[in-house]
Design a protein that fits this description.
Blueprint: E1 13-18, E2 21-26, E3 34-38, E4 40-41, E5 48-49, E6 55-60, E7 64-71, E8 74-78, E9 95-99, E10 103-106, H1 112-119, H2 142-156, H3 165-173, E11 230-236, E12 245-246, E13 257-260, E14 276-279, E15 288-289
Parallel strand pairs: 1-3, 9-12, 11-15
Antiparallel strand pairs: 1-2, 3-6, 4-5, 6-7, 7-10, 8-9, 11-13, 13-14
Length: 294
């Protein structure tokens, strides 16, 4: 497959940790679904402030945790930088993007264990798939992902969704401007520490998405943003604009959706922060999963 055409019960208890104490807020009667949230009050405005990397944890049925990480608002340059090694022209033009609000991002791709806990289904086949609940849920099409998100929203009372492509790239970069979030790595000598890619997976006959969280995270505390599985974005795939954007929701209006992050059977260049691909809504692959936003 050529990478260039490759194409989520009600109630939670939210625990808010303040600098002066602990405030427990009961959202509903079912304490089986819980979220822990580290927040800090602004002593001037009284508004809640969060730090990059703050986490919240939701408990799915069977006490399966779902962890989210706080991503701050900010402005960054989206797309490949001029002359970027092993890049492709549909990552042009590099353009300024401002995200005016922070958001939550999944600490890991959604796993098989999380999927089965909520949906009680196993849509993945056994073809190039690791039988481990902590490995990414793959072979999931957009219709199934939307059903998962709907069930998750009903279970938690929150509003989970897929990230936009701009949110995804802002989150993976975590303030960096290099090819990867660990640097430019021109000879791909550091990539093994951060990502599952062809060189340390499929080339070694380990042809499957690996257990999440085994590689080093980026500076926001997100794992497996590069490699392991391509990740669905809400945006339809299309050409980038050249002018600055504020809270973009995607350039495209076609059928295919944007994929980000690279995967275990692809070359290291697919793991770059600017790398992108596309997938048809009804097509499922062994190397495509998804990550939640909120």
């Amino acid at each position: 497959m050529n990478w260039a055409t490759h194409r989520v019960h009600h109630g939670i208890i939210l625990i808010m940790v303040f600098s002066l104490g602990v405030l427990g807020l009961a959202y509903a009667e079912d304490s089986n679904a819980t979220a822990e949230d580290s927040t800090y009050p602004n002593t001037v405005t009284g508004e809640v402030e969060r730090e990059p990397g703050d986490t919240e944890t939701f408990m799915l049925p069977g006490d399966v945790p779902l962890e989210m990480v706080w991503i701050p608002p900010g402005t960054f340059m989206m797309g490949r930088y001029p002359g970027e090694q092993d890049s492709i022209d549909w990552e042009d033009p590099q353009h300024e993007v401002t995200l005016t609000s922070g958001y939550w991002m999944g600490k890991y791709p959604v796993t098989k264990g999380q999927w089965k806990a909520l949906m009680d289904t196993t849509p993945w086949s056994d073809h190039y798939v690791l039988d481990d609940p902590d490995s990414p849920a793959v072979y999931v099409v957009l219709r199934d992902i939307r059903a998962f998100i709907s069930a998750l929203n009903e279970h938690t009372g929150m509003e989970f969704r897929l990230p936009t492509e701009a949110e995804w790239e802002h989150a993976v970069r975590a303030g960096t401007t290099t090819r990867f979030y660990w640097g430019d790595d021109p000879d791909y000598t550091k990539i093994d520490d951060y990502a599952w890619w062809r060189g340390n997976a499929s080339d070694l006959e380990n042809r499957y998405a690996h257990v999440v969280g085994q590689k080093l995270p980026n500076d926001f505390g997100l794992y497996d943003m590069s490699g392991n599985v391509w990740e669905w974005c809400e945006d339809r795939f299309g050409d980038y604009p050249s002018d600055p954007q504020v809270d973009p929701t995607g350039p495209g209006s076609g059928t295919f959706h944007a994929l980000r992050g690279g995967a275990w059977e692809y070359h290291g260049h697919s793991c770059r922060s600017a790398a992108r691909s596309q997938v048809h809504p009804i097509t499922a692959y062994t190397d495509v999963g998804f990550r939640l936003a909120r």
